[in-house]
Amino acid sequence: MYVSNEQIQEYRRDGYLLLPALFSRGEVQAMKDELPAVFAEDSPARVMERESGVVRSVYASHRTYEIFARLVRDPRLLVPAQRMLEDEVYVHQFKINAKLAFQGEVWEWHQDYIFWRNEDGMPTANVVTVALFLDEVNEFNGPLLFVPGSQRGGVIEPRGRKEADQGEESWKADVAAALSYTVQQDTLAELVSEGGIVAPKGPAGSVLFFDGNVVHGSAPNMSPFDRMLALVTYNAVGNAPPPREKPRPDFLCSRDFTPVTPLESDAPARELAPA
Hints:
The protein is of the alpha+beta class. The protein contains 9 helices and 10 strands.
Protein backbone atom coordinates (compact mmCIF):
# COMPACT_ATOMS: atom_id res chain seq x y z
CA MET A 1 0.00 0.00 0.00
CA TYR A 2 1.58 3.29 -1.14
CA VAL A 3 -0.80 5.53 0.81
CA SER A 4 -2.95 4.72 3.81
CA ASN A 5 -6.67 5.28 4.17
CA GLU A 6 -5.84 8.06 6.63
CA GLN A 7 -3.64 9.77 4.03
CA ILE A 8 -6.41 9.53 1.44
CA GLN A 9 -8.75 11.19 3.94
CA GLU A 10 -6.15 13.90 4.56
CA TYR A 11 -5.90 14.51 0.82
CA ARG A 12 -9.68 14.82 0.48
CA ARG A 13 -9.87 17.19 3.45
CA ASP A 14 -6.96 19.49 2.63
CA GLY A 15 -6.70 19.16 -1.15
CA TYR A 16 -3.05 18.08 -1.05
CA LEU A 17 -0.82 15.37 0.40
CA LEU A 18 2.97 15.47 0.85
CA LEU A 19 5.05 12.28 0.98
CA PRO A 20 8.62 13.32 1.91
CA ALA A 21 11.71 11.70 0.35
CA LEU A 22 9.75 9.06 -1.59
CA PHE A 23 12.42 8.83 -4.33
CA SER A 24 16.10 8.28 -3.68
CA ARG A 25 18.85 10.78 -4.38
CA GLY A 26 20.15 8.57 -7.20
CA GLU A 27 16.74 8.37 -8.88
CA VAL A 28 16.32 12.13 -8.79
CA GLN A 29 19.82 12.78 -10.08
CA ALA A 30 19.24 10.44 -13.02
CA MET A 31 16.25 12.58 -14.02
CA LYS A 32 18.12 15.85 -13.50
CA ASP A 33 20.89 14.59 -15.75
CA GLU A 34 18.39 14.66 -18.64
CA LEU A 35 17.26 18.25 -18.05
CA PRO A 36 19.94 20.09 -20.04
CA ALA A 37 18.82 18.19 -23.14
CA VAL A 38 15.14 18.72 -22.28
CA PHE A 39 15.60 22.46 -21.77
CA ALA A 40 17.66 22.82 -24.96
CA GLU A 41 14.89 21.57 -27.25
CA ASP A 42 13.43 24.45 -29.25
CA SER A 43 9.75 23.57 -29.69
CA PRO A 44 6.30 24.99 -28.85
CA ALA A 45 6.29 22.67 -25.81
CA ARG A 46 9.09 24.73 -24.27
CA VAL A 47 7.90 27.89 -22.53
CA MET A 48 10.27 30.71 -21.56
CA GLU A 49 9.99 33.23 -18.75
CA ARG A 50 8.75 36.54 -20.14
CA GLU A 51 11.25 38.77 -18.34
CA SER A 52 14.46 36.75 -18.13
CA GLY A 53 14.04 34.49 -21.15
CA VAL A 54 15.14 31.36 -19.26
CA VAL A 55 13.11 28.15 -19.36
CA ARG A 56 9.86 28.26 -17.41
CA SER A 57 8.28 24.93 -18.37
CA VAL A 58 8.68 22.06 -20.81
CA TYR A 59 5.70 19.85 -21.63
CA ALA A 60 5.27 16.20 -22.66
CA SER A 61 8.85 15.04 -22.05
CA HIS A 62 7.45 11.65 -21.03
CA ARG A 63 6.82 10.96 -24.72
CA THR A 64 10.44 11.32 -25.78
CA TYR A 65 12.52 10.49 -22.69
CA GLU A 66 12.37 6.96 -21.36
CA ILE A 67 13.17 8.02 -17.81
CA PHE A 68 10.06 10.22 -17.68
CA ALA A 69 7.97 7.59 -19.49
CA ARG A 70 8.85 5.28 -16.60
CA LEU A 71 8.13 8.00 -14.07
CA VAL A 72 4.48 8.35 -15.09
CA ARG A 73 4.14 4.58 -14.63
CA ASP A 74 5.92 4.51 -11.28
CA PRO A 75 3.55 2.90 -8.76
CA ARG A 76 4.57 5.39 -6.09
CA LEU A 77 2.78 8.06 -8.17
CA LEU A 78 0.31 6.01 -10.15
CA VAL A 79 -1.25 3.77 -7.51
CA PRO A 80 -2.16 6.61 -5.09
CA ALA A 81 -3.59 8.58 -8.04
CA GLN A 82 -5.79 5.62 -8.97
CA ARG A 83 -7.00 5.39 -5.39
CA MET A 84 -7.67 9.10 -5.14
CA LEU A 85 -9.67 9.14 -8.39
CA GLU A 86 -11.23 5.68 -7.88
CA ASP A 87 -10.69 4.84 -11.54
CA GLU A 88 -8.08 3.88 -14.08
CA VAL A 89 -6.11 6.94 -15.14
CA TYR A 90 -4.26 8.33 -18.13
CA VAL A 91 -1.72 11.16 -18.36
CA HIS A 92 -3.63 14.31 -19.26
CA GLN A 93 -0.53 16.47 -19.00
CA PHE A 94 3.16 16.16 -18.09
CA LYS A 95 5.49 19.09 -17.53
CA ILE A 96 8.71 20.12 -15.87
CA ASN A 97 8.52 23.48 -14.14
CA ALA A 98 11.97 25.01 -13.83
CA LYS A 99 11.60 27.96 -11.38
CA LEU A 100 15.32 28.65 -11.79
CA ALA A 101 17.46 30.44 -9.21
CA PHE A 102 17.09 34.25 -9.25
CA GLN A 103 14.93 34.08 -12.40
CA GLY A 104 11.87 31.89 -11.82
CA GLU A 105 8.77 34.07 -12.11
CA VAL A 106 5.44 34.08 -10.29
CA TRP A 107 2.59 31.61 -10.74
CA GLU A 108 -0.52 33.58 -9.87
CA TRP A 109 -3.18 32.25 -7.49
CA HIS A 110 -5.41 29.90 -9.46
CA GLN A 111 -7.18 26.57 -9.71
CA ASP A 112 -6.04 24.08 -12.35
CA TYR A 113 -9.35 22.46 -13.23
CA ILE A 114 -10.95 25.63 -14.60
CA PHE A 115 -8.39 25.62 -17.43
CA TRP A 116 -9.05 21.97 -18.22
CA ARG A 117 -12.82 22.52 -18.07
CA ASN A 118 -12.98 25.72 -20.11
CA GLU A 119 -10.15 25.09 -22.57
CA ASP A 120 -10.24 21.29 -22.92
CA GLY A 121 -13.82 20.36 -22.01
CA MET A 122 -12.91 18.07 -19.08
CA PRO A 123 -16.29 17.11 -17.57
CA THR A 124 -15.47 17.04 -13.83
CA ALA A 125 -12.64 17.80 -11.41
CA ASN A 126 -11.87 14.09 -10.88
CA VAL A 127 -8.21 14.75 -11.67
CA VAL A 128 -5.02 14.91 -9.59
CA THR A 129 -1.59 16.41 -10.19
CA VAL A 130 1.51 14.81 -8.71
CA ALA A 131 4.65 16.92 -8.27
CA LEU A 132 8.03 15.25 -7.79
CA PHE A 133 10.59 17.56 -6.18
CA LEU A 134 13.73 17.49 -8.34
CA ASP A 135 15.37 19.92 -5.91
CA GLU A 136 14.95 20.60 -2.24
CA VAL A 137 11.92 22.84 -1.83
CA ASN A 138 12.40 25.36 0.96
CA GLU A 139 10.96 28.67 2.12
CA PHE A 140 13.37 30.61 -0.08
CA ASN A 141 13.02 29.18 -3.59
CA GLY A 142 9.38 29.75 -4.43
CA PRO A 143 7.54 26.77 -2.95
CA LEU A 144 4.00 26.00 -4.03
CA LEU A 145 1.49 27.74 -1.76
CA PHE A 146 -1.89 26.15 -1.03
CA VAL A 147 -5.09 27.26 0.68
CA PRO A 148 -6.08 24.06 2.51
CA GLY A 149 -9.66 22.95 1.93
CA SER A 150 -10.30 25.49 -0.84
CA GLN A 151 -11.09 22.67 -3.27
CA ARG A 152 -14.25 21.81 -1.37
CA GLY A 153 -16.02 24.89 -2.73
CA GLY A 154 -15.60 23.71 -6.33
CA VAL A 155 -14.74 25.96 -9.23
CA ILE A 156 -14.40 29.66 -8.49
CA GLU A 157 -16.00 31.21 -11.53
CA PRO A 158 -13.95 34.06 -13.03
CA ARG A 159 -15.28 37.59 -13.23
CA GLY A 160 -13.72 37.85 -16.66
CA ARG A 161 -11.15 36.11 -18.78
CA LYS A 162 -7.91 37.98 -19.30
CA GLU A 163 -7.25 38.75 -22.93
CA ALA A 164 -4.21 37.21 -24.58
CA ASP A 165 -1.57 39.50 -26.00
CA GLN A 166 -2.50 40.85 -29.42
CA GLY A 167 -1.72 38.24 -32.04
CA GLU A 168 -0.94 35.59 -29.41
CA GLU A 169 -2.76 32.26 -29.35
CA SER A 170 -4.91 32.20 -26.21
CA TRP A 171 -3.38 29.03 -24.79
CA LYS A 172 0.05 30.66 -24.55
CA ALA A 173 -1.13 32.95 -21.76
CA ASP A 174 -2.12 29.90 -19.74
CA VAL A 175 1.45 28.60 -19.59
CA ALA A 176 3.12 31.97 -18.96
CA ALA A 177 3.22 34.32 -16.00
CA ALA A 178 -0.09 36.01 -16.87
CA LEU A 179 -2.73 33.29 -16.44
CA SER A 180 -6.17 33.60 -18.02
CA TYR A 181 -8.11 32.45 -14.95
CA THR A 182 -6.95 33.70 -11.57
CA VAL A 183 -8.49 33.97 -8.12
CA GLN A 184 -9.39 37.55 -7.24
CA GLN A 185 -7.69 39.12 -4.23
CA ASP A 186 -10.86 39.56 -2.17
CA THR A 187 -11.87 35.94 -2.80
CA LEU A 188 -8.40 34.75 -1.87
CA ALA A 189 -8.41 36.81 1.34
CA GLU A 190 -11.73 35.22 2.33
CA LEU A 191 -10.47 31.71 1.60
CA VAL A 192 -7.26 32.30 3.54
CA SER A 193 -9.17 33.66 6.51
CA GLU A 194 -10.92 30.28 6.67
CA GLY A 195 -8.16 27.86 5.68
CA GLY A 196 -4.84 29.69 6.00
CA ILE A 197 -1.86 29.23 3.66
CA VAL A 198 0.62 26.37 3.67
CA ALA A 199 3.85 25.81 1.75
CA PRO A 200 4.69 22.09 1.62
CA LYS A 201 8.48 21.74 1.73
CA GLY A 202 10.88 18.83 1.67
CA PRO A 203 14.03 17.30 0.23
CA ALA A 204 14.49 16.34 -3.40
CA GLY A 205 12.57 13.14 -4.06
CA SER A 206 9.50 14.24 -2.11
CA VAL A 207 6.12 13.83 -3.83
CA LEU A 208 3.17 16.18 -3.56
CA PHE A 209 -0.35 15.25 -4.70
CA PHE A 210 -2.90 18.04 -5.18
CA ASP A 211 -6.52 18.38 -6.21
CA GLY A 212 -7.57 20.09 -9.44
CA ASN A 213 -9.64 22.65 -7.52
CA VAL A 214 -7.32 23.52 -4.64
CA VAL A 215 -6.28 27.18 -4.85
CA HIS A 216 -2.52 27.53 -5.23
CA GLY A 217 0.29 29.67 -6.62
CA SER A 218 3.95 30.44 -6.04
CA ALA A 219 6.12 33.51 -5.59
CA PRO A 220 9.14 34.40 -7.74
CA ASN A 221 12.36 32.59 -6.90
CA MET A 222 14.68 35.28 -5.53
CA SER A 223 17.07 32.75 -4.03
CA PRO A 224 20.25 31.14 -5.42
CA PHE A 225 18.51 27.73 -5.29
CA ASP A 226 16.68 26.13 -8.24
CA ARG A 227 13.21 24.72 -7.55
CA MET A 228 12.49 22.24 -10.33
CA LEU A 229 9.42 20.01 -10.30
CA ALA A 230 8.26 17.18 -12.55
CA LEU A 231 4.45 17.29 -12.62
CA VAL A 232 2.15 14.53 -13.82
CA THR A 233 -1.56 15.27 -14.15
CA TYR A 234 -3.54 12.03 -14.02
CA ASN A 235 -7.14 12.18 -15.18
CA ALA A 236 -9.73 9.47 -14.60
CA VAL A 237 -10.38 7.53 -17.80
CA GLY A 238 -14.10 8.06 -17.22
CA ASN A 239 -13.49 11.83 -17.12
CA ALA A 240 -11.78 12.18 -20.52
CA PRO A 241 -12.71 15.33 -22.47
CA PRO A 242 -14.93 14.89 -25.54
CA PRO A 243 -13.70 15.87 -29.02
CA ARG A 244 -13.27 19.59 -29.53
CA GLU A 245 -13.36 21.61 -32.75
CA LYS A 246 -10.26 23.66 -31.91
CA PRO A 247 -8.35 21.75 -29.23
CA ARG A 248 -5.30 23.05 -27.46
CA PRO A 249 -2.00 21.49 -28.53
CA ASP A 250 -1.70 17.82 -27.69
CA PHE A 251 1.25 18.48 -25.37
CA LEU A 252 -1.11 20.51 -23.15
CA CYS A 253 -4.15 18.25 -23.41
CA SER A 254 -3.45 14.64 -24.35
CA ARG A 255 -6.05 12.91 -26.46
CA ASP A 256 -4.62 9.47 -25.78
CA PHE A 257 -6.87 8.12 -23.05
CA THR A 258 -5.15 4.75 -22.76
CA PRO A 259 -4.97 3.74 -19.09
CA VAL A 260 -1.48 3.88 -17.61
CA THR A 261 -0.19 0.59 -16.21
CA PRO A 262 2.28 0.45 -13.32
CA LEU A 263 5.85 -0.74 -13.55
CA GLU A 264 6.93 -3.64 -11.39
CA SER A 265 7.23 -2.34 -7.85
CA ASP A 266 11.04 -2.57 -7.77
CA ALA A 267 11.66 -1.43 -11.35
CA PRO A 268 12.06 2.32 -10.76
CA ALA A 269 14.88 2.04 -8.22
CA ARG A 270 16.59 -0.73 -10.15
CA GLU A 271 16.45 1.05 -13.50
CA LEU A 272 17.08 4.63 -12.36
CA ALA A 273 19.84 4.16 -9.81
CA PRO A 274 23.25 5.27 -11.07
CA ALA A 275 25.84 2.62 -11.87
